[in-house]
Design brief:
174 residues; Neuraminidase; four-stranded antiparallel β-sheet
Length: 174
Amino acid sequence: MRSFQVVEPDSGKRPSARYGHTTAAQRHLQPLYSSFGIPSESSELFGEESIYIHGGMLPNGSVSAELWQFQLKTSSWRQLPSSPLAVADHAMVSVDNRWLVVHGGQCDARHGSITIDMYVYDSMAETWEQVHYKAGKCDHVCCMYVRQEVALYVPYVRAPGSSCVCTICTYVRK
């Protein structure tokens, strides 16, 4: 039987309350080195496990571009470079325990402004990159990482009062 354990973060800096944000987990695997500085013969790996949260709606009604990393080993939060776009109700998926793909969402809560922008965060280089592609506007997507591709299920409405049209887009990391 599995059980859950409450993890109390340290008393340092932490993200403010929010909703409409996204969460993804990564495990950064590194080779276990012998005392001679070479990878061990068993090629064992150890990992630093992290949980990331991105964006969301803040208590003051603004939309956040913040990216935060919670490191499980140290139970501490670390603020990372913010994304180029503040969004809520968007999708995020971890790719190869290195990249975070962020897609779509609402840019402005008061006016319902929707974006189809896609950004990729490289957790090793700590940089953001915009990805250009064509798709319909949507206020929410389903994002999955399957067989080296990120699949996006994108529902959108062509015109007010018309039915919803769904597309599936794929993104392959080069």
